[in-house]
Every structure is written in C-alpha cells, then in structure tokens.
Amino acid sequence: MRSEIETQIRAYVVENFLFGDDDGTLEPETSLLEMGIVDSTGVLELVMYLETEFGIRMADEEIVPENLDSIRAIARYIASKNDAAEAARPAIAVNG
Fold this sequence. Notes:
The chain has 96 residues and is an all-alpha fold. It has four helices and no strands.
C-alpha cells in the first residue's frame, strides 16, 4: 500500500514541481525542501493535494518537515493517518 502512495505522490511532485521533467534522480528519500523542489508555497499546495487526494486533514502542527520532506516521509505520514482512521472506526458486528 505504501508503495502505491509513494508512486502517486512521486507522480504529483514530478508533474507539479518538476514540471514533468523526470530525470530519474528523485528518490523516495530525496529531501524535497533541501533540494529546493518544494518551497513554502509549495508545501501549502502539497498539503491541499494530500488532503483532497487521500481524504485526510492535516493539523497545523503536522505540517512539519518530518512529515513532508520526502516522498517516503509523506507516504509514511499518509499511511499512519489511514491506520489511525481505520482504528477509530467502530467495528460492525455481523450476525450470521
């Protein structure tokens, strides 16, 4: 599942921040901030994309490099949000 998320995020980053110029150097652990791929405005754009595409809400305190600095970090964050949402859902008993 996480690799699917990484693939989606990578495609978004290449299309929107690298303008489709995928030279193959964007690795899952590449720092999007240190490499200048995403700037402060880009972070806001990325957050809007993640909230829309993955149906999550990012609290202000979650908008930190630890969660958004690389494709892998973003995928890990999305997976943790999905896991938390799944755990919070009440179990539905099936009588049978």
